[in-house]
Amino acid sequence: MIASLYGLLSALGINLFLNSAHSYSIGIPGIAQLLNGILVMSHIDLSIATLIILLNIPLVIFSWFIFGSSYTFFSLVAVISNVLFLHLIPETSVITERLTNTLVGSVIIGIGIGFCFRSGFSTGGTDVIVSFIQQKFHRNIGFVNTIINTVVLGFTAIFFGISGATYSLIGMVITSFIMDKIYIQQNDVTLVVLTKKSESIIESLHDYTHGATLFSGKGIYTNQKTDMLVMIIQKSDISFLKHVILLVDKNAFINVQTTEVLNGNYIRRF
């Protein structure tokens, strides 16, 4: 469902908005747009959809070996959905103003990509490489995408001028921002729990992906034993952990703090 939704949103963003603005999307769709424009100048007719298929073939093979069949299958569904909707949705101009087209199209595409990552798979193409770098080096997908798409901007400036590159840059930044806001699994937080039932909570979290550190303490005013559990978790796990902890100790004090994991034995789970 999410993979098909991405295909629809990406096709809407490209055919109804970005193409009208002569602005290019991120990743393989953006590269396909750019190549299509260059080939048209040389009187070679290869559609954006066809170019997306050709460019994705080596990346799908890479994804299969690195991430396995399940991840690759859903990513492939996203690619196929995108190609189908690009064929079905006519390329037309909904808005005449170039900047507005760029902004609207980029937001729509960013939403689709963000939900794909949030659901545990990519949109294929360069997102496969982005996923690999994100998991290995803990860099946000928006940041990695911006680095990769600098190449697209360079060629856009060469073939279509600084104006085209500028609008494409604006669109890429917007798309990357939206992706990062939706894909909350890549954001790490520190969960601090103050409880008098630490042993029961530890037992309930025994099979949880990430570990925790227990500190023994005592309340200043009550003079009662109060333990502190500290955990580094993914933002998407907050609701689950809050439910589990309060189920054991409804009086537990829970505090969540934004954090950056720089070193140590911590691996994100997707």
State the strand order across the main sheet: 2-3-1-4
- Number of DSSP E strands: 4
**Estimated structural class:** alpha+beta
Rg result: 23 Å
Largest sheet: 4 strands, antiparallel
3D shape: elongated
Q: How helical, in percent, are the residues?
A: 55-70%
Order of helices and strands: HHHHHHHEHEEHE
N-end to C-end Cα span: 19 Å
Strand portion: 5-15%
How many distinct helices? Answer: 9
Whole-number mean pLDDT: 85
Number of structural domains: 2
Low-confidence stretches: none
Give the secondary structure arrangement, pairings included:
Blueprint: H1 2-21, H2 27-41, H3 48-67, H4 69-88, H5 98-118, H6 126-137, H7 141-182, E1 188-195, H8 198-204, E2 213-215, E3 227-234, H9 238-248, E4 253-258
Antiparallel strand pairs: 1-3, 1-4, 2-3
Essential attributes:
4 strands; 270 residues; four-stranded antiparallel β-sheet; alpha+beta; 9 helices; elongated; Alpha-Beta Plaits
